[in-house]
Amino acid sequence: MSTSAPQRLIDNMRNVRYGEVLAVFARDNKLEAEVYGTQMINDCPDELWKTLDAAAIASEMSALAVKLNGPRYWVLDGLGTKVAFVEPVMRDFNGLMMRRIA
């Protein structure tokens, strides 16, 4: 019995530039994280990325901590299917638009 591989949704991603904001929250006596990314929205322009301040974002979001991840370049050729639905929330981080991806 063979199982087919998940259908690739997005290809040609290698070397695409992106940035992410990872925020950690204490909710209902547990830690939860939200990840926002520029993937498929913009190429994480340096002039906007350099203005981000993790401490200021944490304060604005009432997060315990914020980590800025990037800018980076995809090393994968493509992105596959997601196993969990993530509500499509857009957020402006000091002019840099991102979408909640996790």
Give a description of the structure.
This protein has one domain. 12% of the residues lie in helices and 40% in strands. The protein is built from two helices and seven strands; from the N terminus they run βββααββββ. The relative contact order is 0.32.
Note the topology:
Elements: E1 10-11, E2 17-27, E3 30-37, H1 46-49, H2 54-61, E4 65-73, E5 78-79, E6 90-93, E7 96-100
Antiparallel strand pairs: 1-5, 2-3, 2-4, 3-7, 6-7
Structural class by secondary-structure content: mainly beta
Low-confidence stretches: none
Mean pLDDT: 88
Supply the number of structural domains: 1
The succession of helices and strands, N to C, reads: EEEHHEEEE
Helix content: 10-25%
Quaternary state of this entry equals single chain
Shape: globular
Q: Please tell me how large the radius of gyration is.
A: 15 Å
Note the beta-strand portion: 35-45%
**How many DSSP-defined strands?**
7
Number of H/I helices: 2
Q: Mind describing the biggest β-sheet?
A: 5 strands, antiparallel
Compute the separation of the termini in Å.
Answer: 33 Å
Strand order of the largest sheet: 4-2-3-7-6
Question: In a few lines, what is going on in this structure?
Answer:
12% of the residues lie in helices and 40% in strands.
